[in-house]
Amino acid sequence: MPVPAEPPISEAALDVLPNLVTRMAVNVDINGSTGHTFVVDTGANRTAISSELALALGLPPGPEVLVNGVTAAVPTPTVRVERLFVGETAFRGLLMPVISHARLGVHGLLGVDVLGRFAVTFDVGESVLRLRRRGVGLSRAEDTRLDDQTTLQARQRFGQLTLVRVTADGVPIQAFIDSGSQYSIGNMALFNSVAARRPDVNDRRWTVPVIGATGDNVTGELAVVRQVRLGSVTLNELPTIFCDLHAFRIWRMEDRPAMLFGADILRMFDTVTVDFPERQVRFGLPTRHRPSTALP
Fold first, then answer.
1. pTM score, two decimals?
2. H or E stretch covering 265
3. Which of 168, 174, 219 is nearest to 196 (CA)?
4. Above 50 in pLDDT, residue 270?
5. For residues 285 and 150, what is the distance between their CA atoms, to the nearest angstrom?
6. Nearest to 226 by CA among 171, 266, 165
């Protein structure tokens, strides 16, 4: 896949669109056409576009590719995009999978192929998304928040950042941020580990459907995780869907307790920064929501 051109600016601040329930989206420009709504999806390896927008813009077709969604791997057509602008940052020569608007709910998704060069900050309090390149110093506004942040180191696997020092109901887990998912999802290895410590969870779960952007769906079990610890921060009473998603298999997390943190987690904090170059995820401690500082 073509490597995106080096962004010409050091930082961009983009207004987040408010009408997508829990997902966060911004306006992007494609080949000079403006105002298209793309969800910021740190769980997607590739940036995708809706079939309706691709047709309206007359984008030339590319080769078929295999898209690994959270629920399944699906052969998918692509189109070629000459220029994608996120704020004033340009990416050139992108090959985008094409998925129907009905599945995406928006004009497209910004994936790790675009986001992976940046520290991506979801500023929930200000409804702003910030993109910052490696080596650029902190702004004064961010510097004042440093004492209120907790930082987790991460490992990079298949473009994604896997968090360390995370537990769910006392079970050590692998976890990653998927800002394109509205809800947090754990695998069945995690459910079984939690149930071994809390047998009551077996009697307090509800069957729910899980539908991916590619259109396939699977069945999950909704239950409450009493406590998720992210370093020094604790989240209490977190509703979680448990399901052996295709995404867990792709990222080789099917046999060990693992969890996908969706946009419902992001909105519990004032800021969340997914820093791909530094392999860190930084949580700006909230002033009002459920997370609380954990005791040693």
1. 0.79
2. helix 263-266
3. 168
4. yes
5. 7
6. 171
The single-letter code of the amino acid at 205 is R
Residue with tokens 């995370």: 166
pLDDT tens digits along 43-57:
888 899 999 999 999
- CB atoms under 10 Å from CB of 93, counted, come to 14
Alpha-carbon distance 20 to 43, whole Å? 17
pLDDT at 141 over 50: no
